[in-house]
Amino acid sequence: MEKKPFIPGPRPRPNGAQRRQQQPSPKDQYATNERIRAREVRLVGDNVETGIYPIQQALAIAEELGLDLIEISPTAQPPVCKVLDYQKFLYQQKKHQKEQKAKATKVVVKEIRFGPQTDDHDYNFKLKHAVGFLKEGAKVKAYVFFRGRSILFKEQGEVLLLRFAQDLEEYGKVEQMPVLEGKRMIIMISPKKK
């Protein structure tokens, strides 16, 4: 039996285990105190005279106040550092992110499905639902689903969706005209701003 030649390179890990990439924790996001690498920094804070200081002097000021020196803008020239308690700073950052998340508007999309030969009773029932969705501020995605040979009635489906959009004219505006995507013809209607 012949021996295989040794080829240098990364050794395979047992059981296919892979090295996990460590995600930086929020605490490692900002350089603090001795981890700040700049020679001089622009100092800001509550009980501090704002200005440009050598790093040693800035550290001394922070230590004198019993607080941390936090690099909040590392890309600025010189980097901006704040004198503040680090835990309090992290708390404020989390609070600020929560507020931003709460302010972001969430778009809700409600779907309504039709067949190419939907009768009037079904149509009116779905129209009533769509009116309710638009009044709540949700977008409505209405589509006609073509099954099998019913794709031959795509004109009928388009007429149905245009009629649907026209009936909802006072509650919403058409965002996207009827488009055929595979076996579905879709129209998007967004609520009118009050």
Question: What does this molecule look like?
Answer:
The chain is of the alpha/beta class and 194 residues long. It has two domains: 27-101, Ubiquitin-like (UB roll); 109-191, 2-Layer Sandwich (Translation Initiation Factor IF3), CATH 3.30.110.10. It has four helices and eight strands, in the order ββαββαβαβαββ. It has helices spanning 55-65, 86-103, 120-136, 154-167; strands at 40-45, 51-54, 68-73, 80-84, 109-114, 139-145, 172-181, 184-191. The strands form two sheets. It has a four-stranded mixed sheet. It is elongated, with a radius of gyration of 31 Å. Residues 19-24 have low confidence and may be disordered.
Give the strand content.
25-35%
Number of domains: 2
Q: Main β-sheet: number of strands, strand sense, barrel status?
A: 4 strands, mixed
Backbone CA Rg = 31 Å
Put simply, the count of helices is 4
Q: Which structural class should the secondary elements be placed in?
A: alpha/beta
The CATH class designation of the largest domain is Alpha Beta
